[in-house]
């Protein structure tokens, strides 16, 4: 039985060229990038090359890239860094109800420390309303954090419009672009983005490495203390092998962006067409138009998310849900709650399929057929 991986929004397999880049660095480059001798300079060159690649990929400048351990640290550094650096200007933060927990839990911690956080609602399409953001803005608002594309349902937010709204306000604009980076064309200057978070393992790079873009002039209070790495913004000896792998992953993602967008959008439509042809009852969570090309979240009335996932796994298909299932109990997806309400049946029967490296049209056909059979069996149709 062929195993089909359709959970690329959770993590992605490392590209063979990335594995080669990481292995080469582990075998050949061991110097500390902060050392001034030749071994250190060799390592520094690897880091500098990757920083240039990362900056170019989003239209940023070399010194605006801060390497982190991943998206979670990048989100934490952006939010707590601004909250502490701008505490004399205000303590009000605005975010949305559908952010990743790396953002939501950081905001909740800041609330416990005396900050005020406004959690903007979204519609059934998963998008915030600009009017709600404009109404929530205050003179003492210091940060607005809105994710670029949602990791559960794929909905894209009007990032450029938000940047335009905030460009003359003191509030710093942060976007968690972990799920969108490598899939969407991003220009931080054109969109007036001040802070942007990225993670390597979402683009076929190694785990444990990411970056935070911080616009020149943005004051950030560091979360780690030690050496003077990353221009004193993130202490700790750089993970050179992972950074080298990240560099290669960024290059590969940039060179195939449009090709991937077209391919994965086709996969979404292909999967939906198969289910429609099989007369399977389902609902799309979010929209096809304003969404990431590689993520589709479907609700299957009359099914149970845990039974679906178990049956899919037995059929060799790896997918995920909008819910965290633990020990037979379901913690409803905060994203679906925000979109449809806490009493919606969609909280209990929604499955996320996400596409990526190595997926083929033949695999999507197989997966679609398997999903149709499983849903028919579970609903006795």
Structure description:
The chain is α/β, with parallel strands linked by helices. It has 12 helices and 15 strands. It has helices spanning about 15-30, 40-60, 70-85, 100-110, 130-135, 160-165, 230, 240-255, 255-275, 305-315, 335-340, 360-380; strands at about 5, 65-70, 90-95, 115-120, 140-145, 170-175, 195-200, 210-215, 285, 295-300, 315-320, 320, 325, 330, 350-355. The strands form 4 sheets. A 7-stranded mixed β-sheet has the order 2-8-7-6-5-3-4, with helices on both faces. A 4-stranded antiparallel β-sheet has the order 9-10-15-12, with helices on one face. Strand 3 (about 90-95), helix 4 (about 100-110) and strand 4 form a beta-alpha-beta unit. Helix 2 (about 40-60) runs parallel beside helix 8, helix 3 runs parallel beside helix 4 (about 100-110) and helix 10 (about 305-315) crosses helix 12 (about 360-380). Belongs to the class-V pyridoxal-phosphate-dependent aminotransferase family. NifS/IscS subfamily. Keywords: Iron, Iron-sulfur, Metal-binding, Pyridoxal phosphate, Transferase. It catalyses: (sulfur carrier)-H + L-cysteine = (sulfur carrier)-SH + L-alanine.
């Amino acid at each position: 039985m062929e195993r089909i991986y359709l959970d690329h929004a959770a993590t992605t397999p490392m590209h063979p060229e990335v594995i080669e880049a990481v292995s080469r660095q582990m075998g050949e480059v061991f110097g500390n990038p902060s050392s001034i001798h030749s071994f250190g300079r060799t390592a520094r060159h690897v880091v500098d090359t990757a920083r240039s690649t990362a900056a170019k990929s989003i239209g940023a400048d070399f010194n605006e890239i801060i390497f982190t351990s991943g998206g979670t640290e990048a989100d934490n550094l952006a939010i707590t860094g601004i909250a502490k650096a701008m505490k004399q200007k205000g303590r009000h933060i605005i975010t949305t109800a559908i952010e990743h927990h790396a953002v939501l839990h950081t905001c909740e911690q800041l609330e416990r420390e005396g900050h005020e956080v406004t959690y903007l609602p979204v519609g059934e399409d998963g998008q915030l309303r600009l009017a709600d953001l404009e109404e929530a803005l205050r003179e003492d608002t210091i940060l607005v954090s809105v994710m670029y594309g949602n990791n559960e349902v794929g909905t894209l937010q009007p990032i450029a419009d938000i940047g335009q709204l905030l460009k003359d306000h003191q509030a710093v604009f942060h976007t968690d672009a972990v799920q969108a980076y490598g899939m969407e064309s991003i220009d931080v200057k054109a969109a007036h983005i001040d802070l942007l978070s990225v993670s390597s393992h979402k683009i076929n790079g190694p785990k444990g490495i990411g970056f935070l873009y911080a616009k020149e002039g943005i004051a950030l209070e560091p979360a780690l203390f030690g050496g003077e790495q990353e221009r004193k913004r993130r202490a700790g000896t750089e993970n050179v092998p992972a950074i080298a792998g990240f560099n290669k992953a960024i290059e590969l993602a940039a060179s195939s962006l449009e090709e991937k967008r077209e391919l994965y959008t086709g996969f979404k439509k292909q999967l939906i067409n198969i289910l429609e042809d099989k007369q399977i009852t389902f609902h799309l969570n979010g929209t096809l138009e304003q969404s990431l090309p590689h993520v589709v979240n479907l609700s299957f009335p009359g099914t149970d998310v845990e039974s679906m996932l178990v049956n899919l796994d037995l059929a060799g298909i790896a997918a995920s849900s909008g819910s965290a299932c633990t020990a037979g109990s379901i913690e409803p997806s905060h994203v679906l709650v925000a979109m449809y309400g806490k009493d919606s049946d969609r909280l209990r029967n929604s499955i996320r399929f996400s596409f990526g490296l190595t997926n083929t049209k033949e695999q999507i056909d197989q997966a679609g057929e398997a999903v149709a059979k499983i849903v028919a069996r579970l609903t006795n149709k």
